[in-house]
Amino acid sequence: MARTSTRQEDGSVGATLNMSAFERLRADILQGVIAPGEKLRIEALKSRYGIGASPLREALNRLSALHLVEKIDQRGFRIALISHETLVELAMTRCWVSEIAIRESIRAGDAAWEESVVLAHHRLKRYHETSIGPDPEWEALHRQFHFALIAACPSHWLREFHETLFDLADRSRHIAVLHDRSTRDVAGEHQRIVDAVIARDVSGAIALLNQHFRITADIAISAIEPQFPPQTVE
Amino acid sequence: MARTSTRQEDGSVGATLNMSAFERLRADILQGVIAPGEKLRIEALKSRYGIGASPLREALNRLSALHLVEKIDQRGFRIALISHETLVELAMTRCWVSEIAIRESIRAGDAAWEESVVLAHHRLKRYHETSIGPDPEWEALHRQFHFALIAACPSHWLREFHETLFDLADRSRHIAVLHDRSTRDVAGEHQRIVDAVIARDVSGAIALLNQHFRITADIAISAIEPQFPPQTVE
DNA sequence: GCTGCTAATTTAATCGATTATTTTCTCCCG
DNA sequence: CGGGAGAAAATAATCGATTAAATTAGCAGC
User: Fold this and answer.
1) Distance (Å) of CA A13 to CA A4, A16, A144
2) A70 shares contact with chain B (CB less than 8 Å)
3) Do domains B17-79 and B84-224 have the same CATH topology?
4) Considering only CB atoms, which chain B residues are within 8 Å of A104?
5) If one looks up domain B17-79 in CATH, what number appears?
6) S-S: B120 plus which of A14, A139, B52, B145, CB 3.0-4.6 Å?
7) CA atoms within 13 A on the CB side of A194
8) A82-136 pLDDT, tens per residue?
């Protein structure tokens, strides 16, 4: 039943059901549609996505390698949990990885890269100014902005790892967003980051990005904190 | 046909065939038993490992997320290629990642960690001295040594990424080893690294590790260089 | 001899059914 | 009334068969 199309009825783009399942699951996880810790029963997923067990399991296996899903032998899959410790560790890791990535991107980036940063920032800023509150379009622009910053880093492994971490952070941000979002000057943070990057100020850019990530983490932490001690299971 | 055993007849340890396939494939790739660029036909793998298509494909999906295998839509899987550019980029990435990992490991490591480094190094050195040439036992000790160095880095994501890169480098080293290995003073390199780490000399440790990785890469590069321009396919 | 087209063959992707494990439920005992 | 032992139900893992796609082979026309 492999489809030849590159676009399924449901909006996913993969040429194979495996790809399609991967993209849809990833999207649902990142959006928080499926909650952290939730058990993923194959039968449930089959009827939810209308995709058979094999491509689903293949997709889940890949997602587990990206830490979005936890795979437990003989016990299936569950959405990766989010805990205080996880969020702290994630923030640290993002700071460290982006430290390298931004440094090397600034080092290797040429004029064209610099322009693409300005452009990505402009697009994000413009959209942010004309619209209120978060939405998928803003999310996409925000992601593109952060990727533009480190796009000149010559290691695709590092860029990809950066994206993996971004995904994890994005997920917790989406879940936290339901909670709080007002008091943050995201636009200002982005502006200062761009300024530092354009000025080729490596340590300034690192410091600002670190702060950016820590604020994100703090919001997420305070969003899960009010809850009672984390239950292991749903 | 899932087995309940934790150890298959063939020496792999996974409780599921998926795990078993993953481990065996990974081992064969790292050992260079399956050559870079080689096409992985499911039927061939089925008879080779005596495992069905489903667990094999699931394992391959995970290996592709770790960059050991390349997954191409509708066209199956192949072992990741090794090229000059790949090796250079890999060496860079390892340097950068280990820069962070060793820094944070030294920062966070306590006395127990320090002892585990000394111990891992001793085991490696002892084995190295009593035996000549590379073998699986030495490989394991070498790996453990490098993991011990960064074991105190508090980010499990970073440690895992470090391992992923180690795997990739190990593979090319194994393939290159058939070529050349004599002129290198690995033991000396390790000794200097340990000395710097124990002295909590962050920049020294970084420099030495960088050199260590670059030498590894250079050997691998010179091993593939003599060949004619890389053929796209086997 | 080379190019491009179609048919045959191989291979990848996926499904439906089967087997093995885990989980849940019951019921009995202390 | 808690604590299992064992049966029943649910779920995960896997196989064998099927379908779709890519590749190869064969051939016609230039």
Assistant:
1) 11, 9, 19
2) no
3) no
4) 96
5) 1.10.10.10
6) B145
7) 24
8) 999 999 999 999 999 999 999 999 999 999 999 999 999 999 999 866 656 568 8
